[in-house]
Amino acid sequence: MPMDDNKTISSPSGPDAARRDGGLLDLVRTVVIAGILAISVRTVLFEPFNIPSGSMIPTLQVGDYVWVAKYSYGYSRYALPGSPNLFEGRIFSSAPHRGDVAVFRFTKDTSIDYIKRIVGLPGDTVQMREGKLFLNGQQVPREPEGEYTAIDEHRTHMDGERYREILPGSGGHGPVAHDILKLTDEGGKNDTPEYVVPPGYFFAMGDNRDDSADSRFMGDEPQDLGFVPMENLVGQAKWIFMSVDNAHPFWQVWYWPVEIRWNRLFMGIH
């Protein structure tokens, strides 16, 4: 049947098409704005991190997810996504305090994030004697809290003693009470030389004192941390917003509800 020459095929124009085009532009604009806001918040305010190892047990468990405040110590290149080499040092710098649980870049490979407790500041002397922590020549007080069994990232059970340790305050802040785990008082990490923290650095330790690669290891081995430059600081760990036991394979979805450690959600980190 021949086509009528007077007939035309309708084209997407007029008010309906304008509304569709406007809706698409609004969607794109919303996605772009949301992305910019997310990057801004992650860069300037808070960044989420997960805890992959047991070096901070009992304070942090394997499978905890924490919010880290990027503004706590100011900003270095390591606070920015991709760590671009835009400037040296820190801007809006603020000194950390003894007892802070901080995220920082590993000294031997700055693409790796570490989380430890800041124990020593510039000018401090730090030493372990027979498993006890000494700071500026004085033993750091600790009180026993009973037996404790930790489970590390390999699902290995470690039996030890839990203590309440009280680090002296700094920068006008009061003493910081926190829990530590001791598995033994033997070995080189429990009897160390007296370390003097140099200017521009800090001394970091894990709360799981006998299962932590931290500033007590000063050598040239790839895993040795040593003193940490202040520039490597990323932020201070503030809260746990999620915690998952990960005892079962991920695909066993029926275990998900029971693997969430509900009692750890929204806990402050001290």
Automatic annotation (TrEMBL):
GO molecular function: serine-type endopeptidase activity; signal peptidase activity
Sequence ranges assigned to domain Peptidase S26 in this UniProt record: 25-241
Catalytic activity of the protein: Cleavage of hydrophobic, N-terminal signal or leader sequences from secreted and periplasmic proteins
Catalytic residues identified in the record: S55, K116
PROSITE patterns on file: SPASE_I_1, SPASE_I_2
Family from the record: Belongs to the peptidase S26 family.
Protein name as annotated: Signal peptidase I
Taxonomic source organism: Komagataeibacter diospyri
Originating gene: lepB
